[in-house]
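We store chain and fold; example below:
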Amino acid sequence: MDDEAETQANIKIAKIELEKKVIAQYPKLSMDEIKTLVVEKKWMYSMEQRIRTEMDNISHRLTQRIKELADRYETPLPKLSSELEVLTTKVENHFKTNELQMVERFQQTEVGLIPIDWEIKSLHEIADINPNNGKGLPDEFVYIDLESVTQGQLVKINIVRKENAPSRAQRVVLSGDILFQTVRPYQKNNLYFLRKGNYIASTGYAVIRARVDSGFLYAQLHTDKFVKTVIDLCTGTSYPAINPNVLSTIKIPLPTTLAEQAAIATALNDADALIAQLEKLITKKRAIKQGAMQELLRPKEGWEVKKLGKICNKITTGKLDANAMKPDGEYRFYTCAKDFYLIDKYAFDDEALLISGNGENVGYVHYFKGKFNAYQRTYVLTGFSINIQFIKIYLDKYLAARIEVEVNAGNTPYIRMGTLTEMEIYFPKSEIEQTHIAQILSDMDSEIQELENQLKKYKMLKHGMMQQLLTGKIRLI
């Protein structure tokens, strides 16, 4: 100990002496030597490192984008649909199995009712929290900060060099780890990490290395009860956060066998895969629809062009305030929202297009035929001389761009009367062709809407599965 203290003291003295000699040397430096030290040795080196890091990030982002495009287009539509059928069958089979295995014997615990053969464990008893990996940062790594993860997916790849690493880059991440967002945990931007390579997470995450089935634990960390407990234990107002030590004390119910944990994780993973497949199919269908719109609405030889004000007999607005709705009303009430409300009186009885005149949904187009009412900033278009559905589709595609051009930087987007009346509409002379184009694109919209309804349904089913399987109310084994 004495030798170590003496060595440290000698090092300190040597540093002081060296600093004195460096300071004494400064006045003797020539202008060229100063330029070399400041520009080449310091500034240029720092700039080179930053440029290299930025180029690596750009390259990685381009690679990621190419991969996204490849993933989008590599799977043909029939194969996507076929895979969706397989996954749908698997998920529905889980429900058929579950119905036969309802649990009858429960025990009351501090986390609620659980099966008699389940147990309660603190998180630190079944996982290591921020484990010490016994080594420092690698020379180069992918840095996962709080903006890198969205809805359980790693959406941003940020390559960082050790010498330029932010101070929060401290958590080493291995395949199979769970990243739990400890800052603003209500956002639930957690990640079940299954990659290999050098990855370092921000201290805004807790790295959880499970000693039980990691898929099961990841699901438990997203139950309503667990999330509520975490939020209740947070401190701070602007950036509420939970201390990892406090996080580690939260109790979790679990089956005593790894086999049952894995079975639950598999069922929930199948539901996640079905949801992901539906999202991929919807993205594919939307891309196909966009391509079809581009081609079908492209002006062709023999088409006419007229301003919307000449095609539409009347363009007006509603007269009511946005809050005029009545929950038990008989008629539709259109505001600038994407959904309609109800009201007890009507001002219009017609076939019309209704366009949101301001707000975040500015330019959104509704079609309705019948009795309705409208907000004072909602435009009502009636009396069309060509197919009304064709006009709706044309506005769906081109109106947003027209609004964007007319808005001054920094201003809230809104529609003026001239935005609509002066807009040029290209259309085929034949009403039959107008109808065919409208029908094709309308059928595509209906198909996409049906898939979106299925997506909503299976997300709700997944939530229900979590509540049943992760509390043991329904057993798979």
